[in-house]
Amino acid sequence: MFTYHSLDFGPKNQTDVLECCRQSNDALDEDKYFVFLTFYRESSSGFLDDQFTELKKLQDECSPDFVAEVVSLFFEDCEKLIGNMARALDQTGNVDFSLVGSSVHQLKGSSSSVGAKRVKGLCVTFKECCDSQNFEGCVRCLQQVDIEYKSLKAKLQDLFSLEQQIVQAGGRIPQVDI
Amino acid sequence: MASDGGVSCLRRSEMMSVGIGGIDSPPLDVDEVHVLAVDDSLVDRIVIERLLRITSCKVTAVDSGWRALEFLGIDNEKASAELDRLKVDLIITDYCMPGMTGYELLKKIKESSSFRQVPVVIMSSENVITRIDRCLEEGAEDFLLKPVKLADVKRLRNYLTRDVQVSNGNKRKLPEDSPPLTLSHDSSDSSPPPSTLSPDSSDSSSPPLSPVEIFSSPLLSPLDDEDDDVLTSSPESTPSPVRRQKMRSPGLD
């Protein structure tokens, strides 16, 4: 693990990081780790919490794609549950808030299990809107959750792609604590 | 896949041929623990399954209380043939599930003569003290706050392993450097043990009970306070009252 107290520099995009990795024969020496860590941190800060790190601990050579598989299931879950909520909220004049609430509860659970911090946070607010039968609030929360999970999905796809490229360039992915 | 014993109804002669439909049975491994995981969330099932596998447990994951009962054969007491073939060392279940909650499942397990000795752990995303207390009172072994982490599962694994006595000359490497423990813990002074099981004191009419069999043997009284002494002494655990509460006898805290 590397500790450092200031992030003076960092790559602005994937290409920079990859370039750094390729420049050295020893694909990931300490500087390159630093570069990767910075990028990783900047990408994931705020979006993920330490549960994501916990999931990474469960990944090894035998299950190298464990995290990717779990988050992929999570995103499928998001899509399904958001669909359920949208349908329930669409029943104008006859919205079953407990049904919406139960979907929100499930989403909160799975987002918590993968470390999707922002999605989970939104679910808390969403649940409150359901409990108080606040229709506008629910609709707003639904929109936000939809945006948020898609944004996270894009970021993680970038991250996994970056990791893959690093590995293919002969480097190792350091264990990063969020 | 099976280790010796595990369920009180499992006869010794059955042990060598234990298998559960569809799952391969590698040679008996005393160290292997079979866990039944119950959670309606697919994501959580995948995670808990991986957590358990990483700690060397065999896992069967089901998505509801009903399926769990079905798997155990509890809902069909007539199927004793099924019961004989099952061996479950631990049941870990989510609390909030549609249909049958984890609490209801816990009750049904504790009502079953075949499975009431199997430790049941409840998981929940909500840290509600009354909920925790209710589960512990009903006989739950432990209560884990979600999201479940590797350290939580390692702790469970630890007390499962340490609960059993190494017998039959089967040398088992315990996770910590601890002396072999008997279920009626020697260092416990609180009350005389209901029955003492040690390698040499087994019934002359039956072979010495194997490790996990001792834990769930009908000879023992249901989980009593003696056991808590063992359960709480895992060095890896950093118990916080919020995350985990156990049934404890007053003197053992």
Automatic annotation (TrEMBL), chain A:
Source taxonomy: Eukaryota, Viridiplantae, Streptophyta, Embryophyta, Tracheophyta
Localization annotation: Cytoplasm, Cytosol; Nucleus
A GO CC term assigned to this protein in UniProt: nucleus
PROSITE patterns attached to this UniProt entry: HPT (PS50894)
One function term, GO molecular function aspect: histidine phosphotransfer kinase activity
Chain ranges of the HPt domain: 63-170
Species whose genome carries this gene: Brassica campestris (Field mustard)
GO biological process: cytokinin-activated signaling pathway; phosphorelay signal transduction system
Top-rank taxon, per record: Eukaryota
Classification via InterPro entries: AHP1-5/YPD1, HPT_dom_sf, Sig_transdc_His_kin_Hpt_dom
Pfam families given in the database record: Hpt (PF01627)
Protein name, UniProt field: Histidine-containing phosphotransfer protein
Keyword field: Acetylation, Cytokinin signaling pathway, Cytoplasm, Nucleus, Phosphoprotein, Two-component regulatory system
Coiled coil region boundaries: none
Entry domain remark: Histidine-containing phosphotransfer domain (HPt) contains an active histidine that mediates the phosphotransfer.
Keyword Secreted: no
Function statement: Functions as a two-component phosphorelay mediators between cytokinin sensor histidine kinases and response regulators (B-type ARRs). Plays an important role in propagating cytokinin signal transduction.
UniProtKB/TrEMBL annotation, chain B:
Gene Ontology cellular-component terms listed: nucleus
UniProt keyword annotation of Iron-sulfur present: no
Region spans: Disordered: 167-253
Protein name: Response regulatory domain-containing protein
Biological-process GO terms, alphabetical: cytokinin-activated signaling pathway; phosphorelay signal transduction system; regulation of DNA-templated transcription
Residue ranges of every copy of the Response regulatory domain listed in the record: 34-161
Pfam families in alphabetical order: Response_reg
Subcellular location: Nucleus
Low complexity: compositionally biased ranges: 197-207
InterPro entries named among the record's database cross-references: ARR-like (IPR045279), CheY-like_superfamily (IPR011006), Sig_transdc_resp-reg_receiver (IPR001789)
Lineage: Eukaryota, Viridiplantae, Streptophyta, Embryophyta, Tracheophyta
Annotated keywords: Cytokinin signaling pathway, Nucleus, Phosphoprotein, Transcription, Transcription regulation, Two-component regulatory system
Family: Belongs to the ARR family. Type-A subfamily.
Residues with the 4-aspartylphosphate modification: 94
Domain of life of the native organism: Eukaryota
